[in-house]
Amino acid sequence: MKPQFFFNGLVGFKLSKLLLRNPRILPNRSRSSSFSVSSSAALIQDLPSTFEAKPSPLQRPQVGELLLNLKPSVGLSIFDDSLALGLRGDLASYVAMVCILFTSGHRHKLVSLFSDLVLSKPGVDFSFPDLFDTLSRFLNRSGKLLFVLDALIRAFTVCNKPREAFDAVVQLAGRGFVPSPKSCNFLLNFMVESSDFDLVMAVYEQMKNFGMSPDAYRFTILIKALCRGGKFDAAFIVLEEMKETGVMPDVITYTTLIEGLCASGKSEIGSALLQTIIQKGVPVDSVLYGKVISALCKELRLQEAEKLLQDMVKRDVPADAFSYGCLIRGYCTTGNAADLLRALELYDEMVSNYVSPNYFVVSFILQCFSKRGMDSEALEYFQMFKVSGGYLDKVLYNFALNAHCKLGNMDDAIELIEEMKGQGIVPDKIHYTILICGYCRNGEMYNAQKVFSSMVKLNVEPDLVTYNVLVGGFCKHGFVKEAYELMDYMIERGLEPNAVTYSVAIENLCKGGRLKEAKELFKGLKEKGIAQEVILFSTMVCGFLELACAQDAYELFVQLSKQGYFVDQLVCSKLVGELCKENCVDEASTVFNLMLARNVTPDEFAYNSLISAYCQKGDMRHAQFWFDDLVNRGLNPDVILYTTLMNGYCKVDQIQKTHDLFIEMQEKGIKPDVVTCTVMLDVCLKQVQHEFWLSPNRENRKLSFKAKSSKLLNDMKASELEPDVVCYTQLIDGLCKMDYFQDALNLFDEMRGKGLRPDAFTYTSLANGYCHQGEVGKAEALVEEMINKGIEVDHITLSILKRGNRKYRQLQIQR
Questions:
Q1: What is the pTM of this model?
Q2: C-alpha distances in angstroms, 34 versus 28, 31, 58?
Q3: Which spans of this chain does the record mark as coiled coil (predicted)?
């Protein structure tokens, strides 16, 4: 049975029943026409045949005409009931319903009617052109048909059918039904939102075929589509095309293009375009300024963003909290101390310009303070914002609460919780967890447990973070039994302790000096098969390192590696570093090789530690091997690593190799630091001393050292590198050995004048110089000064004084 036959039969059946009960449902003209009660009664007799698979005696046009002759509310009711039963009408019934809705003041329901038709189109045996051909006989005014066509296009957008919408518009246009320009623009914008660029261009070309002259809005839609497709060159071409056709771009057009540029990471071009339109006199508001400033800040082009903000103020465009907030967040994001100061200056400027900071701006600053451990400053700004009457939310209270807890102000933290409640803000699990963490940090485990109990009683369900914090606190402060009981309680609450929980327990047992308990827990987890997690292995190795048991950590690492398990890269690097500190270089090298065997590349810290350890041993062959390995693996050696290697070669008197590395470093664009320059001074001194004893012209060698050292010192100053104590000591020592003692004294005075405190090596070098000059008394006075300043006098200094005294006595005898 075809659905439309059933639909027509149902309509006929309902009509007949309604007419028999209430003839007034037909208008007066209908009651006197052929559609009388008696004719309606005849419909009932023909009703069974409408359920057969053959055409109904009640022809479809008759049903449509019946619907047209009913009161609108009755017609709508019958049609809606039929659709609710899943039945679909035919051409005549839809024509009737469109006419009813149009003429009865229910035009807004046309979109809903067509939406149903669009979604059920496969089950309907007529096309949209057929529908409009028939409608044109009833709604013969073009304005009416345009309105209906607009409704149809909007129905396609409601149903999210972009391709079907385009096909329908093309088909209807072929029959002479062309949408209005407004409706075409609406369709074009819908195509843009559907992200189908080909459809956008197809609709745009179709509008040209309709003979529609593009307006600013249509050009703007096209520019938006091009921007979303990343076709910015084409978007600028369209902008020029607008001007050529006499359509001047308005602020919406420019805003669309600027937003597209900024969203695609081209904020520099967006900013330049903004400046251009400002110069052309296009009115720009704070919203557009803010969007460009925001984009610049996301790309960390902070100085450009700040200039734009200054330009905004200069042009009397009100700077708002959004623009200031973007800049403040940008400066806070870098983590640089100078940038944080600039963020605070902008905050003060914002307040002085009567722009009220919102809680987003304040949260950026508080978060930055928190990350840098500046908890007192965080509380200061929190209080300032609170006093100013700013809105405080849970996030801001989080920062303030965390600051109090980190500072150990637990009473103030509790007061803050009560203040929140007084403001109608209900503390959540994050606030309670911060409190628990604060008490654990202070070792107040009773209070930590008390907060936890209160939390549970208030039906604030703890999460894994809360449990992990409390477990860690118990373990760190020796409450091992309580920690295990808490983990059992977790399980009772349906929350299984995970690897992180056990890791926290092991870590804090080690921090509390309870290595035995940590090893027992780790062993128990391994036996239960729970410990097969990288985080647990890593934590146990870290635990040994925490207690300065690098050898035990190494043995566990090797044991785990043999069993096929591994620890994470950071722990490996830490292990290498600690082994190198204890001069266990071979073991550190083994860790390196095991990492590389697993295709895990050590980081720069690990390489630095190993290379430095080999340099300390004077094993430059291995040091150079690992340096080359680092470079071959695509890692970039920094100034510290180059300096370490240079210093190693200098110690074993490979002067030329040190020079070669120094030149290589500079060729790679790596600027020497103070330590590098100090090493090069040592190299210079060794080189000149070596040549000094071999050369017959010793005076030239002395002058050579002075010239080279002076040049190096001047180069440092040109690079704005201030010599430190070690560097000054190296220079003083060299000048003393080259018999430029007065120059050495001048440097010594310069050093103290800069507030640098000479160390034992500085005093010893200068005392040695005095002794060489035969001025033992001044050397002894210098040693006395050392003692008065609390600097320890070692055996080297004393041996220099003894040699000086012997030399002094010999000089006296000779006289």
A1: 0.62
A2: 12, 8, 14
A3: none
